[in-house]
Specification:
This protein is an alpha+beta fold. It has 15 helices and five strands. Helix 1 runs antiparallel to helix 15. The longest helix is centred in the middle third of the chain and has 37 residues. It comes from Lacinutrix gracilariae.
Length: about 375
């Protein structure tokens, strides 16, 4: 029996490998997952939430370059390597975009950057204790590959850091929906009767409420924030899992191996967890992939409405909200880039869901 199970698993894996778009989507999701985990290691702006603002260079086009003067802070930054790697660097230095500078003796005179042909303010700082080598490190040319947003923040860095929210909300929401959905669906399908009627009543009531409205209500009850959105989205997605699990268990509990397990005196808990659930996980896996995509879209919608991840936290939905009016102002990329990122990630999960459905279909 074990070899048969292994052969079926190997067959499903082989069918999945033969699906080009499924494999491509899988590696794309892995790549986005790695980017979301190590976003601060690869982002040009590795400050917390990539929130380094320079209002003088707001809304600049992709590829924009400017000289940046960094003035060291006297405040000591006590932050270990791992904290900076996973949560961003606490930037205490002052960064100033400049258009020109000149060193005169022990002082540095610079002209602040000003757009639209305006003349920037000239200022002077003391360089008594600053060597020539140190001066070269203080002034550098910074390139914004995706341009800057309306606050002068690096758009590429915000995109990379924002991937973390959109990616991890899928994991948290799907985990919560599986935890509740499998439990409720198992009870309803296996025991039937009044238990099934009561759980189906809860499912139908939850199903009748618009998903976005229910998420908004839960978010308002729990408060605005990062984890509150994760929990709220997960609590609204369990009904689909429960309905699928219930239907599968109703069919599976009439099978001979379940009757044999009951005859051997196994407990209901063991029969459900050890015998039935492992045999009905294929459709649950497929619906989980679809729920990943749905969770990302719901979070983006909530952030667009302003009740998702709160500033200064980077979120693709919030970035669209901040810049959707720029579409008619000649700078559509500010809203289109995060929109394309959402579309690509959602499409990847939908394609991998389709590939898993085909691979796990025993009839094909």
């Amino acid at each position: 029996m074990s070899s048969n199970t292994n052969s079926l698993s190997a067959l499903a894996l082989q069918k999945f490998k033969n699906n080009f778009w499924g494999v491509f989507s899988f590696w794309l999701i892995v790549a986005i997952g790695l980017i979301s985990v190590f976003a601060y290691a690869i982002a040009p702006d590795n400050s917390q939430y990539a929130n380094q603002m320079h209002l003088s260079i707001h809304s600049k086009q992709p590829g924009f370059k400017v000289q940046m003067l960094s003035i060291p802070s006297t405040i000591k930054n006590e932050q270990n390597f791992l904290e900076a790697l996973f949560f961003g660097r606490k930037n205490t230095d002052t960064e100033i975009p400049i258009s020109s500078y000149s060193k005169q003796g022990e002082s540095l005179t610079y002209t602040e950057y000003a757009s639209d042909g305006l003349q920037g303010v000239q200022k002077t700082i003391d360089l008594t204790n600053v060597s020539e080598e140190k001066l070269n490190t203080l002034i550098s040319t910074k390139t914004f590959l995706f341009g800057t947003d309306k606050y002068g923040r690096d758009l590429l860095s915000r995109i990379l850091v924002g991937a973390r929210i959109s990616f991890f909300i899928g994991f948290v929401a799907v985990f919560i929906s599986l935890l509740i959905g499998v439990f409720m669906g198992s009870l309803a399908g296996y025991f039937g009767g009044k238990v099934d009627a009561f759980i189906m009543w809860i499912i139908n009531v939850t199903w009748s409420i618009p998903t976005l409205l229910l998420v908004i209500a839960i978010t308002l009850a729990l408060g605005k924030g990062f984890w509150q959105v994760f929990i709220a989205v997960g609590l609204t997605m369990w009904v689909e899992v429960a309905r699928v699990v219930r239907g599968q268990i109703i069919s599976a509990k009439e099978m001979q191996y379940v009757t044999a397990a009951k005859a051997l005196g196994f407990t209901d808990f063991r029969i459900i967890t050890k015998h039935i659930l492992p045999n009905i996980m294929a459709p649950v896996i497929v619906i989980s992939a679809a729920n990943f995509a749905a969770a990302i879209l719901i979070e983006s919608g909530l952030s667009f409405l302003g009740i998702g991840a709160q500033p200064p936290m980077a979120s693709w939905g919030a970035m669209i909200k901040d810049h959707y009016n720029y579409i008619i102002l000649g700078k559509p990329y500010l809203a289109l880039i995060p929109g394309l990122c959402i579309m690509i990630l959602v499409m990847a999960f939908m394609l991998i869901g389709n590939a898993l459905r085909d691979a796990l279909d025993v009839k094909s």
